[in-house]
């Protein structure tokens, strides 16, 4: 007998230019009796949480509460987080999967390779009184986005230079990898619990029976969960959901976070949900979302460029909810589609580039476990059906001859140039790459020699994107342009130590050119100052 020792490969180093890393912020339990490994502790130590100026105590470190941790597989996530231990009722031993755990599972199942998980607290019971759920809504959202107002607490301002004050999504200021942000708890928080007090919800008895042993059998009886409906929103719930999306987008519009894309699930409506002019969400979801100001209304003025709210080019909504083989541990056997969309985006970024669409046949092999959706899309023969109109602003999963596929890869932006999801992801990739390149220029003299160096560097970067098919145009001059001279900088910029470069590109799927202005400040950080 001989012993063979194999040295485990170290985790891959963080790369700020990656476009396939998703950050999940939400409520999930911590797995008991599973201490942090040396690699996980080293990761937290490198970020300053173990011995740095904002170090945490040992109990706080082990709890992983409000501490971001990068993981490269679902098994690594399952090792640390009790994602499958959400109680059905307070004091009950029956459990199910929590929304964050289901989203992470779906992300890796659809091709995702790296996720950053930020635990903000334990999940609440699926079944609770409507009064208790309503009272806790804003506080639960505040753990995700401290800007949320109302309740007993005041909104917490974002402090990008003080990690000791970071809560929830604020941690993105210290994370260079994530290009996607997900808040999987939102539909559950904004929805209503199953009707009636917790004690009155009928739980069917499971008869005793002998069955043949099999490793393929599900690990639990899902008859109880099948009787519980998936989260559904009323008018007040949708208003709170839209408010949260706007808060998230305003946070990500800051220069420190502008290259991050928010991916969110479009929640299911309750039957009586209707917006202004009695527009029923179940009958005409596009009209309902227009009334809610989530997708653009051609008869309403466009939002201001500095505050697009929910109608943003850096937001992608997913619809409808998916019935998958793995979703038997979720109410009604349905999983929110945001994790699946994020996984497809991540897989597409690795396989074909973040600027290309992830809709169509590419997504088919990764969606073979989808057996149905709620509701079932109905395209019809006309192009003006509600589902066809919805697909112009929402990423819609629908069946086709080979199985389910993502039919649209879009954003809810009112600007046609930003409508295609690949254009927004392309801008994010450009900004992340420019930020990494700009760090090397922090201590250079702000003069003509440096400006020429910046132009050459950015032109080489854009040429590489163009040769990969990211831009349209018959030649490089039509595809992109770079300016960095006295015309792009004012005297105030020069006095403040800012180097400003203007980039104009023609995305491959866009009908208009998009111009972005990048500013390199004295701290060496590139920032997107404006986009048009």
Helix content: 25-40%
User: Any low-confidence stretches, pLDDT <50, length ≥5?
Assistant: 5-9, 196-222, 522-532
**Gross geometry:** globular
Strand elements, count: 20
Taking all residues together, what is the mean pLDDT?
82
What integer value in Å does the Rg equal? Answer: 24 Å
Instruction: Kindly report how far apart the N and C termini lie.
Output: 69 Å
Largest sheet at a glance?
Answer: 8 strands, mixed
Percent of residues in beta strands: 15-25%
Number of helices: 15
In what order do the strands lie side by side in the largest sheet?
Answer: 3-7-1-8-10-12-15-16
Q: Return the structural class.
A: alpha/beta
How would you describe what is shown here?
- Residues 5-9, 196-222 and 522-532 have low confidence and may be disordered.
- The protein has helices spanning 38-46, 58-63, 74-80, 99-109, 130-144, 186-190, 223-227, 235-252, 285-291, 338-351, 386-390, 421-438, 448-467, 476-479, 491-495, and strands at residues 21-27, 29-30, 68-71, 81-82, 86-87, 95-96, 114-121, 180-182, 232-233, 261-265, 268-269, 315-319, 321-324, 370-374, 395-400, 403-406, 480-483, 499-505, 514-520, 526-531.
- Helix 12 (421-438) packs antiparallel against helix 13.
- Among the domains are: 21-194 and 213-270 and 307-319 and 328-357, no CATH class; 435-531, 2-Layer Sandwich (Dihydrodipicolinate Reductase, domain 2), CATH 3.30.360.
- It has an eight-stranded mixed sheet, sandwiched between helices. Strands 17-18-19-20 form a four-stranded antiparallel sheet. It has a two-stranded antiparallel sheet with strand order 2-4.
- It has 15 helices and 20 strands.
- By secondary structure, it is an alpha/beta fold.
């Amino acid at each position: 007998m001989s012993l063979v020792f194999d040295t485990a490969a170290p985790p891959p180093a963080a790369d700020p230019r990656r476009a396939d890393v998703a950050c999940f912020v939400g409520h999930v339990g911590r797995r008991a009796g599973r201490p942090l490994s040396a690699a996980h502790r080293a990761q937290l130590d490198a970020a300053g949480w173990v011995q740095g100026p904002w170090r945490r105590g040992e109990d706080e470190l082990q709890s992983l509460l409000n501490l971001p941790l990068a993981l490269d597989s679902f098994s690594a996530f399952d090792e640390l987080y009790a994602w499958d231990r959400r109680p059905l009722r307070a004091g009950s031993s029956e459990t199910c999967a929590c929304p964050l755990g289901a989203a992470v599972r779906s992300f890796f199942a659809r091709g995702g390779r790296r996720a950053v998980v930020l635990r903000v607290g334990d999940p609440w019971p699926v079944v609770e009184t409507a009064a208790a759920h309503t009272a806790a809504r804003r506080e639960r959202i505040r753990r995700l986005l401290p800007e949320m107002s109302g309740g007993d607490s005041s909104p917490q301002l974002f402090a990008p230079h003080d990690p000791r004050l970071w809560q929830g999504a604020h941690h993105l200021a210290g994370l260079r990898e994530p290009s996607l942000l997900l808040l999987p708890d939102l539909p559950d928080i904004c929805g209503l619990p199953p009707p009636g007090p917790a004690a009155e919800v009928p739980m069917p008895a499971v008869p005793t029976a002998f069955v043949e042993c099999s490793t393929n059998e599900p690990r639990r009886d899902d008859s109880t969960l099948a009787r519980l409906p998936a989260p559904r929103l009323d008018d007040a719930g949708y208003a709170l959901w839209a408010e949260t999306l706007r808060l998230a987008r305003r946070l990500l519009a800051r220069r420190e976070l502008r290259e991050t894309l928010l991916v969110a699930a479009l929640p299911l409506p309750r039957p009586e949900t209707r917006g202004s002019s009695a527009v029923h969400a179940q009958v005409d979801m596009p009209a309902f979302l227009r009334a809610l100001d989530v997708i653009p209304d051609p008869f309403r003025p466009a939002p201001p460029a500095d505050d697009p709210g929910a109608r943003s080019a850096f937001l992608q909504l997913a619809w409808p909810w998916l019935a998958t083989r793995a979703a038997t541990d979720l109410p009604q056997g349905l999983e929110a589609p945001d994790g699946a969309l994020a996984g497809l985006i991540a897989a597409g970024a690795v396989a074909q580039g973040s600027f290309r669409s992830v809709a169509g046949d590419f997504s088919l092999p990764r969606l073979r476990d989808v057996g149905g959706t709620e509701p079932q899309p109905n395209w019809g023969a006309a192009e003006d059906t509600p589902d066809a109109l919805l697909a112009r602003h929402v990423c819609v999963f629908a069946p086709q001859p080979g199985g389910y596929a993502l039919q649209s890869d879009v954003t809810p932006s009112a600007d046609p140039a930003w409508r295609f999801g690949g254009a927004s992801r392309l801008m994010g990739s450009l900004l992340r790459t420019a930020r990494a390149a700009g760090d090397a220029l922090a201590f250079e003299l702000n003069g003509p020699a440096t400006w020429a160096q910046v132009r050459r560097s950015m032109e080489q970067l854009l040429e590489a994107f163009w040769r990969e098919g990211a831009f349209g145009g018959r030649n490089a001059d039509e595809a992109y342009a770079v300016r960095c001279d006295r015309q792009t900088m004012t005297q105030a910029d020069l006095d403040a130590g800012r180097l400003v470069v203007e980039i104009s590109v023609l995305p491959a799927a866009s009908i208009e050119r998009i111009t972005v202005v990048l500013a390199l400040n004295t701290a060496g950080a590139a920032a997107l100052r404006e986009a048009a």
